[in-house]
C-alpha cells in the first residue's frame, strides 16, 4: 500500500468510485499510519434520523394515489394547513371565544341593555301621560295605619363636627331583627351604642319567626327607638284587631279548629301574648319615616320594602311599601313578585336623572334627592347603592344582623354580627 508524506499528495479516485476507499499514509516524521475513510456522497445520505421513517412527515395523500402531482397545488396547500396541529389548536381557541361571546351577549349583556332601555322609557315623563303612572292620584286613607311620620330634627346628626367634639349624634339603622333579641344586644355592643347620643331606627319586621319577639319590642321601647311598619308587624297587628273585634282573643282553640285551619297560628299566638302597650307602640310605627336631610345622602327616608319613584311619600300605597320587590316599568305598579325590574334599579336611575337635571338649575341639587334605607329583601341581602341601602341580611335564618351607622357629616359605617339559625328551633 502506498505511503504519503503529506495529505495533499493523496491521489483521490474520482467520484464514480465505490462509497469508500481505504487509504493509509505515513507522516515524514515517522508518525504512525492512519487509516482514512473518504466519503464521496453527501453526508445527509448517511444520516439515519427518526424523521425519515415517521409517517407523520410523509407526503399528503391525494385523490390519485398513483400520481399525487395531478391535484391542484392550492388543494395540496389547503390540506397541509387543515391537517397542521397548530391550525387545529387555533380553530378550537377561536371557536371557544365565539361561543363565550355569544353566551355573554345572550344571557348577560342583552338582558341588561333591554332592562336599561325599559327603565329609561318607563321614566320618560311623556309615558306618564300615555299610560298613567301608579300613584298619580291620592290613595284612600287607612284609619288603623300611620302613613307618614317625620323624625324629630334634633335627632339628626349635624353636618359638621362641633368645636368640642363631644355629644355628637348618630343614627343607627337596624335591619330585620325577627325576634332575635340576643343578636340585637350583641349588635348594640359592637356599635358602642350610647342611649344619650345615638338613636335607633328599625326598618320593620322586628317581630315574628324568631325566639323573642316581645323582648325586641321591649328593648326598642326602652331606648325610645323609631321604627317603620313591616309586613310581619302588619300581619300580627291586623290579626290582633280582628280577634279583638270578634272577641276571640282568649280562645286559642279556634286557631287549630276548622275556623282558621291552622292558618297564621304563630302570628295569632304572638298577637295574644302581646300586651296592649306593646301593640299600641307597634301601631305607631309609620309606613314611611321621613328622617330629614343628612349630608351626602340628601333626604333620607326609611321604609320596610321599597318606594315607587316619582310618587309623593303620602301617596305611596301602604301595602306596596311593606311588600314590594319589583316595579312595572311602564305603569310603575309595584309587585311582591321577583319577576320584573327591581324597584331599586328604577329608583336609582330616577334619582340619577333627577340629579343631572337639577345640576343645571340648582347650586345644591343633593338636598332635593332622596336616599331610601330599607329591609325586607333578605334574598338579595346587603345591597348598598347610591340612593338605596338594603340592610336585611337574613339574621333569623343564620345570616347576619346589620346596622348602618350614620354620624356627623353623613359619615357611614357598617356593623354586623353573626346570627344563629332559628328556623331549626
Automatic annotation (TrEMBL):
SUPFAM superfamilies: Metallo-dependent phosphatases. Residues 170-377 form the Calcineurin-like phosphoesterase domain. GO terms for molecular function: endopolyphosphatase activity; phosphatase activity. Pfam families: Metallophos (PF00149). The chain crosses the membrane at residues 90-108. One of its GO terms (biological process) is polyphosphate catabolic process. Keywords: Membrane, Transmembrane, Transmembrane helix. Gene3D superfamilies: 3.60.21.10. GO terms for cellular component: cytoplasm. It comes from the Eukaryota. The keyword Transmembrane helix applies. Residues 1-24 are annotated as: Disordered. This is Calcineurin-like phosphoesterase domain-containing protein.
